[in-house]
Design goal:
The chain is built from seven helices and six strands. By secondary structure, the protein is an alpha+beta fold. Strands 1, 2, 3, 4, 5 and 6 form a six-stranded antiparallel sheet that branches. Helix 1 (13-22) crosses helix 2 and helix 4 (143-157) runs antiparallel to helix 7.
């Protein structure tokens, strides 16, 4: 893109996709950031999710994914995140930094092979993901703990509980039988779907009488940030000091 530093190294995402394919990673979804200026078209931030080729034919209830984030306008470094695809609801989770620290590469002097080699670290991390999910499943939550989890989740997206369009009980609601359950894993997935896909309401109305509801998140940054925040909350729930207060942040839609 015009205007980037002379030190900026352009590494086409297509080269990374080809290199990851040689190592057994198959792209399964892609999204691009919305743009307001035509000058940024083709350079904007984009997110790709990859799954291991051996997992493609026989999907389990969940599968570990590699999440690649990049842009070509100097606004974003190459980033590799660990993700999880849950077949039941087609939800794409992103694992928080406490579970697996994202790998970031500056564009200065970058070689495509560096990113591909780094992706292999996720293979070593996969068994730990399974162990952590088992801990999520084993940790049953009392009703007050589920509400506390949902309240902290709302504060990841809204500046206060009063500013949220729905209450905690609403974001805990299940949309299918497979999502019912009081363990951390099921609560995490229900809250994640309701806060990211949106569309849920508890009949609250604003000052003009308009029905309030959770709007879907469409921005790449806000979706990844919320996903990672929710995962970190779930990890807190399986620690001795469950659901400790978290930093409040407001995410743009």
């Amino acid at each position: 893109m015009a205007g980037v530093s002379g030190r900026y190294t352009f590494v086409p995402t297509a080269r990374i996709v080809t290199g990851l394919g040689d190592e057994g990673w198959v792209p399964v979804s892609v999204e691009e950031q919305r743009i307001r200026s035509e000058a940024r078209r083709g350079f904007q931030k984009h997110l790709l999710r990859f799954r291991r080729s051996e997992q493609m034919e026989t999907l389990d209830e969940w599968n570990v994914e590699l999440v690649l984030l990049n842009s070509h306008d100097a606004g974003c470094a190459y980033q590799l995140h660990a993700g999880i695809y849950r077949r039941i609801c087609s939800n794409g989770l992103v694992i928080g930094e406490t579970g697996w620290e994202a790998i970031r590469f500056r564009h200065a002097g970058l070689e495509a092979e560096e990113v591909v080699r780094a992706s292999l670290r996720l293979l070593e991390f996969m068994p730990r993901v399974g162990e952590l999910i088992q801990r999520f499943r084993a940790r049953e939550l009392a009703p007050r703990e589920s509400v506390a989890f949902a309240e902290q989740a709302l504060l990841l997206r809204y500046p206060s509980l009063e500013a949220a369009p729905v209450n905690a009980e609403t974001v805990l609601k299940a949309h299918r039988l497979d999502d019912e359950g009081q363990d951390v894993w099921h609560c995490l997935n229900r809250v994640q779907q309701n806060l990211i896909r949106g569309g849920v309401s508890d009949s609250r109305r604003d000052r003009r009488g308009k029905l309030r509801s959770v709007r879907s998140l469409r921005g790449i940054d806000s979706t990844v940030t919320l996903n990672k925040g929710l995962w970190s909350l779930a990890e807190q729930m399986v620690q001795p000091a469950a659901c400790a207060p978290t930093e409040v942040m407001t995410l743009p839609a």
